[in-house]
Amino acid sequence: MNQFIDFRGRKINLEGSPERIVSLNPSITETLFMIGMGDRVKGVSAFCRRPESAEKIRKIGSYSTYNEAVMDEINPDLIMTVSGYQDALADKLSEKYNLFQMELPSTPFGILDMINRVGIVTGRVDEARSLVSRLHKKITINEKRFRAYVEIDLGGPVSFGSQSYIVSTLGLMGFDTVYKNEPKEWIEPNFSSVKDFDPEVIIMEGKMYRGITREEAVKKLNERGLEKTSAMKNGMVFTTPGKLDFLAHHGPDFFNSAIPWLQKVYENVLLQKTY
Question: Rounded to two decimals, what is the model's pTM?
Answer without folding.
Answer: 0.95
